[in-house]
Every structure is written in C-alpha cells, then in structure tokens.
Amino acid sequence: MSVEMEGIVRRFAGTTALDGVSLTLKAGEFAALLGPSGSGKTTLLRILAGLDFPDAGRVRIAGVDLAGVPARQRGVGVVFQHYALFRHMTIAENVAFGLRVRPRRQRPSEAEIARRVATLLELVQIPDLAARYPDQVSGGQRQRVALARALAIEPSLLLLDEPFGALDALVRKEVRRWVRGLHDRLGITSVLVTHDQDEAMELADRIAVMDRGRIVQFGTPRALLDDPATAFVAGFIGEANRLRGEVRGGWLQIRDLPVPAVRVAVGDGSAEVFVRPEDLVVEASTGCDGGVEVALVRAERSRTRVVLRCGAAMLDGVSDHPDDQVAPGMRVGVALRRLTVFGAEGLHETVLPTRGTVRFTEGAAT
Length: 366
Ligand SMILES: Nc1ncnc2c1ncn2[C@@H]1O[C@H](COP(=O)(O)OP(=O)(O)OP(=O)(O)O)[C@@H](O)[C@H]1O
Description:
Elements: E1 3-12, E2 15-25, E3 30-34, H1 41-49, E4 56-61, E5 64-65, E6 76-80, H2 91-100, H3 110-123, H4 139-151, E7 157-161, H5 169-186, E8 189-194, H6 197-203, E9 206-211, E10 214-219, H7 221-226, H8 231-236, E11 241-248, E12 251-254, E13 262-263, E14 269-275, E15 280-285, E16 292-299, E17 304-310, E18 313-319, E19 331-336, E20 339-342, E21 348-351, E22 358-361, E23 364-365
Parallel strand pairs: 3-8, 3-9, 6-7, 7-8, 15-18
Antiparallel strand pairs: 1-2, 1-4, 4-5, 9-10, 11-12, 11-14, 12-13, 14-20, 15-19, 16-17, 16-19, 17-18, 19-22, 20-21, 22-23
Helix pairs in contact: 2-3, 2-4, 3-4
Bound molecules: adenosine-5'-triphosphate.
Adenosine-5'-triphosphate binds at residues 12, 15, 17, 35, 37-43, 195.
C-alpha cells in the first residue's frame, strides 16, 4: 500500500525532531530512512506506526488519513531492535501474540492461529523452534521470530527500526538478504530505519537521507551516489575526499589538489569539493621525481586502495597497477576523473573535467 507523509512536524521540549517532513512511498516499495543519530528517523517511524502523533502534518496509508487511528488498527507490522521478545512465552506464543490480543470478534480461532503460526515459522525458516523459549535460540533466530511476530497480523506495511543491529556481521548479511526476499515475495511496502549506509544501499529501492529533522534527499542508491543534492549527502553517502576550493569567474581552483582550474557553472565564492576514491586513479609511477607520494596501500578484491599525500591533505584513491608498482614512498601521477562541487547559494554540479581526465603530478599539471 502507498504511504504519504505531508508536512510532518514533531516537537519535544526544546527539540524539533521532525521539521516538516514530506515523503511519498509507492506500494510495494522498500524504502530506507538513513541519517545520523538524532536526525529523526525513529520518530518518523513511530508516527507511521501510530505509536506517536505529529504536531502538524498528515499521514495517509493507502489513501486513508490516519489521524487518530490507533496503532493496533493500522495493519502495520513493526520490528524494533529493542522490542524484545516476551521471554516467558515460547516462540510460537510470541508469534501468535498479535492475533491473540485482538478483540474477540476479530480474533481467529485457536486452530486458525496455530495454523498461521506454523506457516509463519516455515516462512522464516525456523519451523522446528516453535516450542523453545527466546533465550534458547540464537540472535539471528530471535530476529526471525520478531519478524514472524510482526508478519502474523498480515500487515501490508512493515516497519523495521535497526532490526539487524544485534546480529554479528555474517548473520546480519544473511538475514537482511532474506528480509528483502520476503518483502518481494509478500508484495508488502517496507520502511527500514538504519544508520548503516551499506545496509540501506543493499536493501532499499529508495533511500531518504535525513539530517536534523528534515529529508535532504530521497532517491535511489545510485542517484544519491552520483548526484548528491547537498554537501551533507555527498559527505554522508559513500566515501568521498572532502576538499575546499574557490570559484572565480567560473573557474574552480581546488586547494591541496595540484590540478589546473576546472570550468564550473556554480557562482563565485568559496566551494566544497567532493572526490570519490574511485575517481582519483593512480596512473603510473613517475620514479623519484615529481608526482604525488603514495602514503599507504591496501589490497582489496577488485583493485588496490591507496592513500596519497597531496600537500597538507591525505586523499583516498585507487590503483589498478600490480602491487609492486605502487608502494608506500613511491611517487606517482594521478588522474582526477570526476568531482562534485558545491558552491555559493547551494548550487552544485558534478564535473567530468573536459578532455576526459586531468592528469597531474605535484607542482605540474598536464
Ligand atoms: N520522547 C522524546 N522526548 C524528548 N526528545 C525526544 C524524544 N524522542 C526523540 N527525541 C529527540 O528527537 C530527536 C530525534 O530523535 P530520533 O530518535 O527520532 O532520532 P534517530 O535519527 O532515530 O536517532 P538514532 O539513530 O540515534 O536512533 C533527537 O534529538 C531526540 O533526542
């Protein structure tokens, strides 16, 4: 089902947790709310769940205005990291909970509840654990139980607040892939709150980046990486070297990067420049003279990561050369393939330096 939030404001004493949030999700979409601590992610999710209410603004789910509709009647499944399972209930009783607390008229029969619980435990791939208690299963299995419990009421909207936080890295990867598969199979709409951008990138169709109670950009992972709307997004999503620059008469001079001025469309004044490591590429060793000094080299599966000493700055870049050709202490030529500049009045631009690549060595650019 579709979800529309319009002008949501939520204030707590002295804090504006949400400062006019508008966001529309398509039915069947998997969206992530991503942002630093305190940016308002959980508050927004709680408002969607009906566990909290906005001071201003509206929430519509499948076109229905939800002002005043209590959580239990929203048909929303919620999984919180700290929303622990009931320890005194078996796994099966935990999963059945949302059905058993329904008013008598809407409550399925015990036989129907047992059938649904069995189907759900099958779905989350722990059919044999029904009779165990939560502290008799692993963290990953507990998370699956929490999901089964949220899905028991057959929600068409699933809200997940840092649901994988308690899991170790390997299990986490496996469980989140499985959650995405489940989302696709059930055809539900899901909203995930996380501050882990890898998680958001892997799971979500679109990501809403939040900063201080506002959504600063809502887009696909690719759009956020390639066309960040603000300097905050450029610095927050993906890795980037952050440099200062100056624009004069349409030419950008980057401090600490010995490249010739780059033609840009942003206005004159000071500028912030972001260069992704993959856009700063080691070209070749220059021998002992000239070039930029390689400070660190780290092998990765597909290519080698390097840290380059450029003036006062240490910049992350990449190299496709065999390891023995690029080692700490060597001096190399480097190509700048692409940069994003944020200039005066919030204008920004992603620039592919004309003539493809700007090659530079320390002190002398070609
Ligand atoms: N019940 C509350 N009373 C007072 N302030 C609150 C309350 N709930 C949230 N806040 C404040 O509102 C702001 C947003 O909090 P929220 O929990 O939504 O952020 P978040 O992005 O989910 O952060 P985190 O990643 O740390 O969980 C914070 O400044 C927080 O301190």
